[in-house]
Input
Amino acid sequence: MPASTPAMSRYGLDMHGIKNTNMEYWNLATPALYEEAIRRREGITAHLGPLVVRTGHHTGRSPNDKYIVHEASSEKNIWWGKVNRPFEAEKFEILYRRALSYLQGRDVFVQDCFAGADPRYRLPIRIITETAWHNLFARTMFIPAREEELAEHKPEFTVINVPRFHAAPEVDGTSSEVFVIVNFGRRIVLIGGTSYAGEIKKSIFTILNYLLPLRNVLSMHCSANASQNGEVAVFFGLSGTGKTTLSADPERRLIGDDEHGWSDHGVFNFEGGCYAKVIRLSKEAEPQIYACTRRFGTVLENVMIDAHTRRLDLDDASLTENTRAAYPLDYIPNIEASAMGGHPKNIIMLTADAFGVMPPIAKLTPAQAMYHFLSGYTAKVAGTEKGLGKEPQATFSTCFGAPFMVLHPTVYAKMLKEKTAGQQVNIWLVNTGWTGGPFGEGQRMKIAYTRAMVHAALNGSLDKIPTEADPIFGLNIPTSCPDVPNEVLKPRQTWKDGNAYDEKAKHLAGLFNKNFEQFENEVTPEVRTAGPRVK
Output
């Protein structure tokens, strides 16, 4: 039974098999979703207006609970393995029917949206949720259909998000009560057992990573911005490497902070919002994102709040290190309104090296670019995930987004090679991690230095500066950079003990080489030998 709503699509919930619901709330605007979320005690408003929600003990992604249904239309294309784990089609049907019966008699919220700013590649999607705040998240993160488009909106993919419905592993064949299951044949994503909103966003990204390369569009886990004269830069990187922070630059127009496509026409954002980590966010270092945590319309996940004053404590990680803010793209003052740009002039691959041995900036050859794109290195440190000890843990996430790459990594790598070969593109590796020693001994690279290096790369001033090859990693390091002390550029010079540096650098080089063995038969000899040199 539809509630009082704005326009409702003539393609109703019956096309998904959803029947006998209580109230259907179609395409509610942000204020109405706020009212519903607060009335249902799903969250509270903070000082100046953001909505603060808790996600229980599920405060991050659940990679071990993600599956792709093994079915005829997609099985030959998918990179099956640890990342893309198969789920039986029959088991999916049983779980899906149980989810449909769970929704009977309940209120549901529906948002009809698009993924993809470029109309040529835009995907009509529908997000169906049992909570108002998840629907607000979807409205914020995707591109809402315009009023005149709603009546004829026919979704090509639908996400059904039922966090309070739990799987029974012994019956359903899941690893736990949590499940995120993509069915390319049925064009459905089913999410249950977890309230972490990032699963909604990343499930659509996973779908685009499957569909778009088949249309010769490279899907990328990256942020993007453009200079005032339209020169585009993209920033590849995993969570915590600075993708969102470095792309929010007052001197450049933001195209998007996390997911983009690169077509024959240029780059375009997949999303209509940003999803930033906000733990220990600094007003001084990240003023644009900080301002978004103090606005109506922003959804804050697991951020601590004083119940009396309703003021936030962004430094408090007692619930999780993975505190998040979802806010509309236009909350950043200087955006590219079309969320589209030309072909990139610069590509920056970000890593947060917690071993403290990678250079803060290096220019990559085409072969090195392929090597580091396939490697997708960063390092996790204590506090970012359960079970991590004091030692940093190297993470290799191919294409800087392995959990969401449905096709074989070499598909994306070959596309990147083809796209860059036809353009004059500078490719850089930037380490936003530790300097002067590993995590626990050294310190995190100053964001002011990283910004100065990125600015020098993007404005062309590094092109005129000579480079020296790193003896272990083989990377070409500029000998100087405006506004950055020379010794910072060479990590060995920042360590008290050069021998300790050499030992740690060789250890990481060995991890790189070991990880790359899986790609050795898939790449050219130039790429194979573009990694670290370790005896």
